[in-house]
Amino acid sequence: MTESSQPQMREAAAPAKTGAAAQPPGHLFCFGLGYSARRLADRLLSAGWRVSGTCRSPEKRQALARAGIAAEIFDREHPVPDLARHLAAATHLLSSVPPDGAGDPVIDLHRAEIDAAAPHLAWIGYLSTTGVYGDRGGAWVDEQSDLSPSGERGRRRLLAERAWAALAQPAHLFRLAGIYGPGSSALDTVREGRARRVVKPGQVFSRIHVDDIVNVLTASMARPNPGAAYNVCDDDPAPPADVITFACTLLGVAPPPEVPYESADLSPMARSFYDDNKRCRNDRIKHELGVTLAYPDYRTGLRALLGAGY
């Protein structure tokens, strides 16, 4: 499960605004205004911040403009025109752009401008994944654990983390677990008839509600610690089949039959998620940033989504 650009549905009842949203309004420039970054942008806009950044299509650019966000088209073939001017107006910088086979597009194309802007930026953040830890056979990992990704996507993320950490002002690294939230949860998977209960004994995944990602990011903005890494996950790593079963219970439908992992017809991408089996600790976001998770487990999160009409 990774950062996506799925459209937002109607606004859910949001947790109390904390962190950067409670600070004097600033200006966030965000490379990649996808699902999580857009959720952060909406929180900051409601607190009087300015938000600008990048997207990948003219249609998305128009939608962002309607929300009050000025965006430039960006990908490896389209660098941001006059980025130095954009960054000169920004106080905070975030990237949610994933690396590709050639590296991190933002660093490759714009490292010089970011380094030049570093002295006046209050905060730089990079959205990574817990995939950098690799497979631990279900054992616990924290931010001090060795980084030994088991797949190509994890290896790309680790290289990207190192590049962002080597900036003139090191970025804060946020290792996101599987993201869910409004319009993108097991509830939607069940309703759309795509739910499967793939069973691999002992397999667990960590997860995080998108609004808790926003809570962590805003708390970090309020307490900068350049170069720090944070696991952004809830308190309850769990088997994926359990989440589907619970979503079916909430919706009052029969769960799909269990399918053994060995015989499941999974895409290479889906199968790659099962290569890693670990439990991620989140003590640092609580103790260093003072974050109290609004959704400490998937049951709390899914109940809240259903109650809000998602």
UniProtKB/TrEMBL annotation:
Residues 12-21 have a biased composition (Low complexity). Keywords: NAD. Residues 1-21 are annotated as: Disordered. This is Nucleoside-diphosphate-sugar epimerase. It comes from Dongia mobilis.
